[in-house]
User: What shape does this take?
Amino acid sequence: MADDRVKGFHASLHLNMGKAHQDLHHPDQARAHYERAAAHLDDLPPGPYADAIRFAVADGLRTTGTPAEGPLTDLISRWCARGDLRALALVLPPYLGDLGTDEDRTRLTTALHMVHAGRRLPRDEQQNLGRALASLVR
Assistant: This one.
């Protein structure tokens, strides 16, 4: 629909269509709808609703794409297990809202740099965080 009165609903519509296809075990169609939802996120007014839609779309893209692996996911798992709220508070919002854009990558690397600069992690995690940053900057 080209009507501007409904364009703010497109992200939510495609998000829900993506979830429906995912529930029906149609990952390709689900991913296509999640990608369409991501393309319409800028039509939402800023605020908690837009953030919730963004996180849900990013989750849909993650679950229908290549599974996340590597030093960053390992670190996040360790921080969760240890209850490291400082690291999690900085990193989870950009990680969970990452749609794969350059802007999202900048947000994530900035948060990781902040955790790395704080030097509050155990030595092995500090080193793994350095490796995770290096892999993101490439």
Remarks:
- DSSP finds seven helices and no strands in the chain.
- The chain has a mean pLDDT of 91.
- The longest helix spans residues 48-64.
